[in-house]
Amino acid sequence: MYSLALTFPLLFIFHDLEEIIGMKRFVNRNADMLQARFPFLYKRFSNFTTEGFALAVMEEFIVFTAIALLAIYFDNSLFWNIWFGGFFGLTTHYVIHIIQALVIRRYIPALITSIICLPISALILHNSYALIDINLWHILIGIAIVALNMIPALRIAGRRQ
Q1: Rg of the chain's alpha carbons, rounded to an integer?
Q2: Separation CA 74–CA 82 (nearest Å)
Q3: 131-to-2, 77, 90 alpha-carbon distances in Å
Q4: Average of per-residue pLDDT across 53-79
């Protein structure tokens, strides 16, 4: 499991670099379509700056790295289940991006790395599932950490610099 642990923050940062690079440009180029079809999303993302988004990604990277390092350091079922849940949350994030691209019928920043990371992450989850003493409640803690961490991350990304 040690060799798999750091794939969590590494795949995350690989994926989110595509988002950092392309998000502001995508929102600006697709403003009319986003305002018409997805006004809530446009309102949420139109005030993001590249710097703010990068800072939010850094915050998430720190949390995900901490989860991986805690699993390695403590090497117990609780932390490996939290790691598994967090990694599952990240993998679900890739699926959401692919669905988003299908819904709007165009490239979105994050699509390419989602397509690359999804099968890798699915394989890692499959292989680690056999190595962890699974506890659904502990896995849900990891999923909740990833999901709830989006709240401060989005707040950070939306702050004016």
Answers
A1: 16
A2: 12
A3: 11, 10, 19
A4: 96
